[in-house]
Structure formats: structure tokens, C-alpha cells
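Here is one chain, start to finish.
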Amino acid sequence: MAPVSPTQRVLSPDDVVDFVRSSFGPDRRVADCGPLSGGGFAAVWWVRLDGERPGAGRPQTGHRDVVLKVAPPATARLLRYETDLLAAEARYFRLVAERAPQVPVPQVLHHGHDRQLGEWLVTGRLPGRSLPDLDGDDGPVRADLGAATAALHRITGDRFGYDAGRTGGATWSAAFAAIIDDLLADAADWQVTLPAPPERFRALVARHGEVLDTVRRPALLHFDCWDGNVLADRDADGTYRMCGLVDGERFLYGDPLLDLVSPLLFRRAEDEPTHPFLRGYAEATGAPLVFDDGVRRRLTLYRMHLHLLMTVEMPSRGITPENDPGRHTLLAELLDRDLIELAAD
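Its structure:
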């Protein structure tokens, strides 16, 4: 199967067998497997394992469904913040399972690294379908996501930004400025045309540094809670409820408001205060969301960050103005709007 983007490795069923053997030994065999769509970074396959071979006191354990995620090839060019993302995802899932067990994340079964195979991650496969694939009311699922996000935000890190020595800082303004600097450096490396010079982005972030530093606690952020990363299934009453939150490799520590952006992608939380996600979040925190001037400015900064990231990552994913002109146009318009709003505040 051809990759969706240059960062995705081309895998075959035989490759999947090699990863399974390296993860669990020769007694676990692949009964069936196939690629999963929806992502644009790593290669992701579902795998059905058969049981261990009977004998030596080992009973036949039956099938088990898992997900195999394989890191980009060593030759792939990545953005600066995409360093060691599979290792980060393993840390994230383990942390959430320990500190916020009510949030349904996949179980980490194996994180491996091999000179020949590269880096890979095997997790349990959660039930359900992603939000875009549902055929009924998704409001309860979005409310569940809001409550789960609030639970994640109760976990506190020891610094702002990414963990494990990656980009961050002692204050939220310093960490956020460094994150934006990385994206601007990536834009220069990839010769990405932006709607404004890099200096304008940096100046606007610096201008709003004081409001960023009203954030004093580095909360755990998923960051990537777009609809494709939220799984749901019907409960006993036939209502769709959230049953999984996946793709945690881009997590960081910072302002909880940053996590109110991707669940309302290309929209504005302050314009939709009764949105099910925001309602579920407020109910779980026990406090209403107040969209005062400082909150609105921070949300605009975080939309700018997401729109900048989505713009800068396009060449690394093989996306061009020719093969996806609509995305280029939309993101340019959104970034321009973000910059105008930040300059006016």
C-alpha cells in the first residue's frame, strides 16, 4: 500500500509479521492485518494476533486485536517538534492510564527500536468508530470528550512545553514563544510561504506574553483532539458514547485553553459556549467557561499556532497548492484573520 505522505513507511503483511515477532516472540502469529487510514505521520495497521502456541503449559489464548504504529523512515524530513513522537506517545498513554484511568486510551503493549526495523509501537485496539464515521447524534460523545479533557488537565507537569528535554520553558510565554520559533524555522527550511513575515508572528506572541503568563500551572494537554482521534460506540440504550482517545504523541504541558481549539477545528469556542464539548468540559471542572478578554486573546494565539502548524507541515506530508488548493487557501485566510485579531487587541 502506498503511503499517504512521505513520512509514512510502506508496509506489507510480511513486515507486520516481523514487527509482531520482534515485539512478542515467535509464539505470537498474525492471523490477519490491514492498514488504518486517517493519519498522515506514521504508518498504522490493525493486527489480529492468534494465541500463543499451546504446549509447555501455555494454553491457546485466542485472538487479540492490536494496533501497530511504525515511525517514519530514517530518511524522512520531519518538523522540529516531531522528534521521538512514538516514544512520547508511549509515555502519554502510560501516564494517562496511571493518573486519569477514567480516560479511555490504548494500553501500551510494546515500544520497540531496532537498527533494521526502526521504531514502532504496539497498543491494544480500542472498540468503536471515529467521530466522522458515526451515523447518529454525536453530542453525547463530544460532551464525554469535554469531561475526559478536563480529567487530563488535572495532571501537572514539571515544566511548560514538550517533555524529555524537547522544546519548552520555565514559563508558558517562554515555552509558547519557543514552540512558535520552531515552526517558523521549519517554514524557512521548507520554504513555506506565510501570510506575514516571521517577525510579525514573533512580535505578536511577545506582545501578548503577559496574558500568556497568567497561566501558572503546566497542565497535561492532548493537543490533537480533532474528530478523527475520538472513538465512540453505542451504549445499552443505543446512544453513542466516547470509548477511546488515540494519537497522544503530540502532547505537551501548558494552558488548558489550548485544548479547546482542535475539538472545534476551524471554529471559535467563544462563539459557541453551549457546544457539547464545552458543556461537558465545564460540567467536569465544576466552573463555567468565562470568555473574557484575556481568554479570547489566548484562544486566538492558540488558533494561530494550530493554523501555522497545519500550514508548515504541508510539504512534509506531500500536500501542495496543486493537489489540495482548498487547504492552502483556507489556512492562509485563517492565519491572516488570527494575525489581524491579535494586532487589534
